[in-house]
């Protein structure tokens, strides 16, 4: 889907932010999970509701948007696309290039505001 010249290939909306997720976000770690989410992960996760399917795989150079703010993806773990597609789950490390890339994770550069319920999440191709 194209929106104002931007190729959007995944869209979702933040439903709620777990009580401990704010501390993780402040530390540059975003744990995204689509609803329904396992109870054990609710407190540390940003729970979201996808509005459609992942229409192409995430790649370095793509952008993750939270509302009108975005960061650039710099690396994508080998299982990140499958996890996002099947259970709406991905861990995003912001400005942590020295951290080992885990299979289900994505590295990104830049900063985003704290997520709040109702904010849109989008992935876009360059």
From TrEMBL:
Q: Name one GO biological process term.
A: phosphoenolpyruvate-dependent sugar phosphotransferase system
Q: Which GO terms describe its molecular function?
A: kinase activity; protein-N(PI)-phosphohistidine-sugar phosphotransferase activity
**Pfam families for this protein:** PTSIIA_gutA (PF03829)
| Protein name (database record) | PTS system glucitol/sorbitol-specific IIA component
Q: Name one GO cellular component term.
A: cytoplasm
Question: Which residues does the record list as Phosphohistidine (modified residue)?
Answer: 48
Q: What InterPro entries does the record tag this protein with? A: PTS_IIA_glucitol/sorbitol-sp, PTS_IIA_glucitol/sorbitol_sf
């Amino acid at each position: 889907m194209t929106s104002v010249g931007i190729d959007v290939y995944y869209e979702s909306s933040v439903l709620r932010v777990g009580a401990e997720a704010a501390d993780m976000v402040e530390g540059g770690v975003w744990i995204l999970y689509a609803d329904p989410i396992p109870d054990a992960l609710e407190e540390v996760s940003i729970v979201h509701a996808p509005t459609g399917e992942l229409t192409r795989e995430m790649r370095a150079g793509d952008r993750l948007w939270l509302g009108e703010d975005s960061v650039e993806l710099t690396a994508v773990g080998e299982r990140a696309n499958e996890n996002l597609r099947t259970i709406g789950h991905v861990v995003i490390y912001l400005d942590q290039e020295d951290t080992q890339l885990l299979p289900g994770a994505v590295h990104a550069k830049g900063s985003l505001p704290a997520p709040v319920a109702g904010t849109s999440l989008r992935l876009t191709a360059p």
